[in-house]
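hey can u run this one w/ flavin mononucleotide bound, need the structure tokens asap thx
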Amino acid sequence: MDMKNIWAELPKGFTVLAPMEGVTDAIFRQVITRAGRPDLFFTEFTNVSSYASEKGRENALERLKVVATDRPIIAQIWGKNPEHFGQTAAALADLGFDGLDINMGCPDKHVNAAGGGAAMIRTPELAMDCIRRARAKTELPVSVKTRLGYTYVEEWRTWLTTLLKENLAALTVHLRTRKEMSKVPAHFELVEEIVRLRDELAPTTKLILNGDIKDLWQVREMREKWPGVDGYMIGRGVFENPFCFTEHIGTTEELLGLLNLHLELFDAADMEKLAKTAERMREDAEFAMRMDGKARGLAFDPLKHYFKIYIHGFNGAAELRAKLMECKNTSEVREVLAVLAEKKAS
Ligand SMILES: Cc1cc2nc3c(=O)[nH]c(=O)nc-3n(C[C@H](O)[C@H](O)[C@H](O)COP(=O)(O)O)c2cc1C
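ok here u go:
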């Protein structure tokens, strides 16, 4: 079976929503699709050893849920066990993905202590083994997202050379080191040299820039400046303006519309999960015992992280957010929003 390479089909200068743990789940991707989608989505990262274990698989599969409007979409995975990379890679095409991306840039202490994310920059042999094992088990194109280096910016040439020699389908470079976290401006001064290195070593590998790119206006300028760059990945820009993949700044009404859509999608996913756990409890007594006899839906608190994206930039936004943070479920959120709408109407 010859699978198509999605990276080769994207327009030059394409846009990508960055993978963001706790943010870019299936619900949020649908909200962004309503606002104006990028050319490509990534999932949040999923741990390969979690997928490879009986206990963790259910949770991993939930993170790897794809809906029809997501495609094209890349599954991002992380870990340090080459065999588990292979096992996870083997499953991704059937789950509806167009590619898989290996995270070699996450600076999180726990992720790095487990040998994954940016820690891979320090274990290049293991990193290449993970890439090869993943590639051996899937026809999907394999890409990597990484940083310039672990400690020093000067590491970039050696590290990116190692990666580019693997002939990846795509390479996303977050233009900072692990040590710099997101505390210093991205090193745009290196872009031309990085493009040259890619052209020399792996001209078919798509090069995606990431770090401090906020919106499509900025992307347009960069396309002019660096025609050799293939794609642009936006992360936190979506918090400031969920319409950042279009040339539009969302009005308060439009942002509230997106919040309402988010609530609707959350409720639907919650019901689906409740029904699923209830059914499983009926079939599996041990599971029912573990659940304490109570079917569970989605946790509500993580939904609160999104309020800031939709409620900002107008008088009274901070007070409204404070009220929403007190809510315990979506009905309470809707009540608070209804009071706001009534006040506005009067
Ligand atoms: C809340 C949050 C979660 C993130 N989770 C991931 C992740 O799961 N995988 C990943 O490769 N990068 C992750 N990142 C990093 C982003 O993908 C991106 O590289 C970084 O935010 C820099 O881009 P930006 O300046 O456009 O935000 C995360 C960033 C944030 C803010």
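The mean pLDDT is 96. anyway lmk if its weird
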